[in-house]
Amino acid sequence: MTFLLYISACLLLLVSFAHSYLGERYILIRLFKRDNLPKLFGNDDFTKRTLRFAWHLTSVTWVGFAAILLALAEPNLNKAKVLYIIAVTFAIHFIVALVGSKAKHLSWMLFAVVSILSAVAANS
Known about the structure:
Elements: H1 2-32, H2 45-72, H3 79-100, H4 107-123
Helix pairs in contact: 1-2, 2-3, 3-4
């Protein structure tokens, strides 16, 4: 079973990096050249930033799942370690959403709370 978890984690890492790189290069860049994106807050900057950070957060999530799979591969499951992985994953979500949207997309608040609560739960 451990070997299967390692393979799964490696596949998630591979697809994560491919998703971010190829999506940026072949989808997002081309999409952002269009002139018919929704204009929120006066222009299409918010739309572009939201699409970009949401796209890359998918990849961050897959890296977090890969880390959880690696934790599950350990002989003695450490729940605190899994909670820390979740806390770090959502801390990255928080930073990406905050910076990526210039704090306009309010998801950063939720991600920060999830990160903090997961870290506190790990210490309980």
